[in-house]
Amino acid sequence: MQAPLAELLQLLELEPLEVNLFRGASRDIGAPQVFGGQVLGQALRAAYATVEGRSVHSLHAYFLRRGDFNAPIVYQVDRSRDGGSFSSRRVVAIQHGAQILHMAASFQEPETGLEHQLPMPEVPPPESLPDLRELIEAQAAPLPVAVRRFVGRNSPFEFRSVQPQDYSNPQPGPPRQDVWFRTVGRLDDDLNRHACVLAYVSDYHLIGTAMRPHGLTLASPGVVVASIDHAMWFHRPVRVDEWLLYSIESPVAAGARGFARASLFTREGVLVASTAQEGLLRAS
Q1: Do 249 and 262 meet the contact criterion of CB atoms below 8 Å apart?
Q2: Across the strands, what pairs with 224?
Q3: Rg (Cα) of the chain, in Å, rounded?
Q4: Contact assessment for residue 187 and residue 8, using Cβ atoms and an 8 Å cutoff
C-alpha cells in the first residue's frame, strides 16, 4: 500500500477517550485549513463506532469554523435513537474548545425492496484518460505549492477527469464535470471503512465544478473557497479501491456561494451514492 493511502487510513482511525468521545489527528494536505473531507470521514468513523449491524445511508453536515491542522479534533457522539431498523447519531467535532462541524447521520439494517436508478452518463473509460497528477506536473506555468500538494503525487487517490481543466490557463466552460477516481492501493473488505473513505474523497471537485463557468480554479489568484455544508446518501455498498465515476453538476452560484450535486457510479453503471454541497465562493 502506498504511503499516502496508509496515512489516510491511519487518519480515519480514532482514539477512544470516553464513552461516545473520540479524538482524531489532523493532516496538512495543502489547504489553509483542515480539509473538510477529513472532518467528514472522521465524524462518520466516530458515529460508526457507536453502531452495530447497520450501515450508513445518509449524512448531513455543516462546517462551522476552519479547522487547525496543527491540532487534534475531538468528536462527541450523541446516540439520538436506536429504532427497529434505523439508528440516528449526531456528531459534534470540537477543536480549541469550539465546534468546527456538526453532523447528523442515519444507519439502517440491511433490507431489500424496490429498486430503480437513472443511467450513468456515457463517458470514456478511466484507462483512456490521463492521471490528474500527470496533468498537474505538465502545466505550462508552475502551480502554487498548496495546489500541487492537494491533487499531486502525495494524494491517496488517483483522479482521471473526462473534462480536464488547464490550471495555469483556465477557460470558462459548462458547469459540470465527470471524474473517475479510486484509491492508489487496495483496502481490506471492511465496507464501513470504505464508506468513511468515500465521505473523505467526496469533498473533492464539487466547488471546483461551480467555478468552471467563470474560468476559475483553486490556483486562480484572489479565489477564496470553503465548504459550508455537505450531504451524502449511500444507496448501495461501495468499494473505493475500484473505479468510481463522480458525475457532478453545478446548477447555480449566487450570494457568494456555489452549489453542486453529484452521482457516484461504479464502472458497471451502478449508482452507489449521491452528494450535494454548498460552498463559499469569492473571487476578487
Answers
A1: yes
A2: 282
A3: 18
A4: no
- What single letter denotes the amino acid at residue 197? V
The model carries a pTM of 0.94
Encode pLDDT of 196-253 as tens digits: 999 999 999 999 999 999 999 887 888 999 999 999 999 999 999 999 999 999 999 9
Q: Would residue 124 be called left, alpha or beta, if left means φ above 0 and alpha means ψ between -120 and 50 degrees?
A: beta
Fold of 3-110+129-283: Porin (2.40.160)
Residue 168 pLDDT grade (very low, low, confident, very high; cuts 50, 70, 90): confident
Rounded Cα gap, residues 240 and 157, in angstroms: 9
CB neighbourhood size of 277 (10 A) = 27
pLDDT band at 149 (very low <50, low <70, confident <90, very high): low
C-alpha cell at 128: 483512456
Domain boundaries, the chain: 3-110+129-283
- Side chain identity at residue 222, one-letter code: G
Q: Hey, what's the cell of 216?
A: 476559475
Residue 83: which residues within 8 A CB-CB, separation 6 or more?
Answer: none
The C-alpha atoms of residue 64 and residue 100 are separated, in whole angstroms, by 5
| Those residues with Cβ within 8 angstroms of residue 188's Cβ, 6 or more apart along the chain or in another chain | none
Which residue type does 28 have?
D
Amino acid at 176: R
Active site residues: 203, 227, 277
